[in-house]
Amino acid sequence: MIASTPIQIERTTTPKPKPPQDKLGFGIYFTDHMFIMNYTAEFGWHRSRIVPYQPITLDPAAKVFHYGQTVFEGLKAYKTADGRVQLFRPDANMKRMNRSNDRMSMPPIPTELALEAIKGLAKIDQDWIPDGEGNSLYIRPFVIATEALLGVQPSLEYQFIVIMSPVGAYYPEGINPVKIFVESHYVRAMVGGVGEAKTAGNYAAGLKAQDAAKDQGYTQVLWLDGAEHKYIEEVGSMNVFFKIDGTVYTPALNGSILDGITRNSVIRLLKHWNVPVVERVLSIEEIYEAGKNGKLEESFGTGTAAVISPVGELNWRGEKLIINGGKTGQLSEKIYNDLTGIQYGKLEDPFGWMIEVH
Amino acid sequence: MIASTPIQIERTTTPKPKPPQDKLGFGIYFTDHMFIMNYTAEFGWHRSRIVPYQPITLDPAAKVFHYGQTVFEGLKAYKTADGRVQLFRPDANMKRMNRSNDRMSMPPIPTELALEAIKGLAKIDQDWIPDGEGNSLYIRPFVIATEALLGVQPSLEYQFIVIMSPVGAYYPEGINPVKIFVESHYVRAMVGGVGEAKTAGNYAAGLKAQDAAKDQGYTQVLWLDGAEHKYIEEVGSMNVFFKIDGTVYTPALNGSILDGITRNSVIRLLKHWNVPVVERVLSIEEIYEAGKNGKLEESFGTGTAAVISPVGELNWRGEKLIINGGKTGQLSEKIYNDLTGIQYGKLEDPFGWMIEVH
């Protein structure tokens, strides 16, 4: 099978200067190399290669521009104090990518092949993994439909590409609570749609609400369900958790919510600590109720970029709810410290989450 | 203002052979030239140019690949019997494009500028408009986000591109009814989402249901509303009409349905003829009810590609409903003949819809 041939490597002859550690931001700078692999209906996935980071050239009729067949993933490589390079649960990302591929009528990518690509690329550009507390190398695998044909049918040609960006600490001055606007007008996704797929269209669909929330001084929106605008889905591009009276709640996966890998890791960590955690349908009303009764102790979002993002305030139809006095809760902080501790190799990894790049 | 500078034209030195008239299909062949214009936050829309049809080159971090900010339009140029070239309601397309741009947090394109681009391109490649009954030149304007940045915010850079494809008659053997599967599981869009925007993600989201319907012998799916799976939205990528007891019904625009230009033209034509036409919420149940009572006389879809596509059969939860004995209805045929008659310049155009290209 052509797909199993080794990765061809073409090294750059003009390595770029690395950006200053304190100016990294998120997804602004890209490393010296990228991975590409092609798919055709005839040959399947083939021609896997690492090449110098470069523009891609597509026919203007390529389906990605017109019908949006695309999926992506996001994960990070970390450098440990003793100089090892490790990835956080890349196998989980590759499995999810294939669930997204399936939902978008796109061909699956053999998990081993995708993992090899990511490890190979992380290895060749490992000097790009920044030192410094909270810094890491963000890895962005994505698949795009490239067939040049305007018929509305699944593309017969694709490219799988991996690019990488050194990123700074999400909270340069330490983990800080955000203010969240509960969105009652716009809807991100609904059951029966593509909300659980990590596909480009879901993100474009959320921009207008996000901009409106920012105009009012909020960092992100909290999305409610599309049918009744009653039930909590997710926060911006993160999953969301609430600690009420000692128990941690998060919306159950229903097809319209992203099956977050940080979400899943937090649930496993909480169970490991014997903290009660419940996945179920959660209404915004009961969160406000708990807030008024003094039982809402903490809230936080989970995602690859921020890991844990405490929520200090909600605004639902003009009614503000301050959570934990607007401060980071103890449990939020403990989860953040433990998860990042595992990721940076400072703490033991009892779950076998970290995959070392040799 | 830079945007108002004239269009720069670079003609091809290697014109392509034209495809055979009987093998045109849809969106397979592209003409010799394309239009491109750039947008930056600093300069607005600028550098409008017609160049030889060619691949486009983008950074792999361009936002269109990751967050799906893109809108498109579709319209046609027709050649009349006496050799004139005319466009069908291009102003309506450009206005809709800007409504889509707004929903997707993308910058508007001055309508005059976009119309000039389309007319200029149609003129330079007018030899590509195929002769022959039902043939036309399909024009595909689209806008893509090109900024190379992985933050989830609206792009600060875009390209507006127009490509054109000579297309064949949708029904080479005359207008023929299609079989439609009523989709009860998957959902295309919902109120509060981006269903009324002509954006790539809406089309990718529909592919899986479409493929499942095709596997069962159906041409397209009929989408129901996302909240209750009860109310009719649209058919595949067309709007849908039902003639019941002498009155024509079509779902009212609600934000999740595309504001079709053919849909609007059909409504205006019906009013012109004094045929009662009603836009309102329509349940699939009442359509089946009307079918059982013998009051459902005709059904048809409307769109740029097919103009009118009669519906001969519905299948809802396994229950088949044959419409008008599976044959094309009289009114469907009359609308088709009159609309295409106006488009090809065979009939008078009482609405001022046709715009001639000089």
UniProtKB/TrEMBL annotation, chains A, B:
<comment type="similarity">
    <text>Belongs to the class-IV pyridoxal-phosphate-dependent aminotransferase family.</text>
</comment>
<dbReference type="InterPro" id="IPR043131">
    <property type="entry name" value="BCAT-like_N"/>
</dbReference>
<dbReference type="InterPro" id="IPR018300">
    <property type="entry name" value="Aminotrans_IV_CS"/>
</dbReference>
<comment type="pathway">
    <text>Amino-acid biosynthesis; L-leucine biosynthesis; L-leucine from 3-methyl-2-oxobutanoate: step 4/4.</text>
</comment>
<keyword id="KW-0100">Branched-chain amino acid biosynthesis</keyword>
<feature type="compositionally biased region" description="Polar residues">
    <location>
        <begin position="1"/>
        <end position="11"/>
    </location>
</feature>
<dbReference type="GO" id="GO:0004084">
    <property type="term" value="F:branched-chain-amino-acid transaminase activity"/>
</dbReference>
<keyword id="KW-0032">Aminotransferase</keyword>
<dbReference type="InterPro" id="IPR043132">
    <property type="entry name" value="BCAT-like_C"/>
</dbReference>
<dbReference type="InterPro" id="IPR001544">
    <property type="entry name" value="Aminotrans_IV"/>
</dbReference>
<dbReference type="InterPro" id="IPR036038">
    <property type="entry name" value="Aminotransferase-like"/>
</dbReference>
<keyword id="KW-0663">Pyridoxal phosphate</keyword>
<dbReference type="Pfam" id="PF01063">
    <property type="entry name" value="Aminotran_4"/>
</dbReference>
<protein>
    <recommendedName>
        <fullName>Branched-chain-amino-acid aminotransferase</fullName>
        <ecNumber>2.6.1.42</ecNumber>
    </recommendedName>
</protein>
<dbReference type="InterPro" id="IPR033939">
    <property type="entry name" value="BCAT_family"/>
</dbReference>
<comment type="pathway">
    <text>Amino-acid biosynthesis; L-valine biosynthesis; L-valine from pyruvate: step 4/4.</text>
</comment>
<keyword id="KW-0808">Transferase</keyword>
<dbReference type="InterPro" id="IPR005786">
    <property type="entry name" value="B_amino_transII"/>
</dbReference>
<keyword id="KW-0028">Amino-acid biosynthesis</keyword>
<feature type="region of interest" description="Disordered">
    <location>
        <begin position="1"/>
        <end position="20"/>
    </location>
</feature>
